[in-house]
Amino acid sequence: xRTAIFGFSGxxxxxxxxxxxxxxxxxxxxxxxxxxxxxxxxxxxxxxxxKKITYSEIExxxxxxxxxxxxxxxxxxxxxxxxxxxxxxxxxxxxxxxxPAAQMEAIETDFLVAxxxxxxxxxxxxxxxxxxxxxxxxxxxxxxxxxxxxxxESERPLRSEPELAxxxxxxxxxxxxxxxxxxxxxxxxxxxxxxxxPEAPNGALILPVAAxxxxxxxxxxxxxxxxxxxxxxxxxESALNRVIRGVYELLGLISFFTAGDKEVRAWPVxxxxxxxxxxxxxxxxxxxxxxxxEVLGYDDFLKAENFKKAKxxxxxxxxxxxxxxxxxxxxxxxxxx
Length: 337
Known about the structure:
The protein has 14 helices and 12 strands. It is α/β, with parallel strands linked by helices. The chain has a domain of 64 residues: Ubiquitin-like (UB roll), CATH 3.10.20. Strand 8 and strand 9 form a beta hairpin. Helix 5 runs antiparallel to helix 6. The longest helix is centred in the middle third of the chain and has 33 residues. It is flat, with a radius of gyration of 23 Å.
């Protein structure tokens, strides 16, 4: 889960990166892994006292570049963010020098223009290949690219057509307007709690943050002190928690758990994934040799309080290849390689 943080110069990109990554990780470089908070692991940890506890992680990337509003984000920024799974655009709503809505519109335009250039270049190449030999051209790719062209020319981001954006034949193009985007409306800390977000572009989310304040908050070692400052400002939770929730929502992810004496662990998986796909998140051998999954729903676990009682109550279920994994499922996979 690679999330690239980007924006125009002076919008607070590095401050937000430091807030999300923490001061030590931010000082170490432009990439940092942040643990996904998962309080649902706590009862499992208390039950098993495992040797190892592993949380899901998101990689945050502090993207260089930034450009100017009049000149766009710049080629360097566009190249850097292209390989990310999710984009986090930071908008200046704190200085009074910029219009964050105009910055958001400029970013969306940059994405459309960059994607159009990629599509036009590829279609021109396919046309040349077609003249030489029709067998050189994949008709599915050509058809998909023409569909992409229609979407972009109508000034809509590719993410507004999710099925097209996720088409396997287009995966290698890494279209910018097809990527999930979370826009961080970077406000003074006193304005975060009362912020009403404007309408977001197709398929995007808008999140209020106070990057400088959150950066300073992340430097405090006492979690109770951090909580006190947030409460005083009427902010329910940190920017890190809210950004992670936004990333999960945009990427369509849920969590399942594995638990035992050796390790209690949270795993991210696509919402709507069947059991073998979830098994493959742990190891490809689990997916290839999948037999069945032993599943305990999280609410059933809380009801039983421990695995022994859950089995006595018949709350464990054996599920096959068609089972859709649910958020919070506690799963043990049976497989044969």
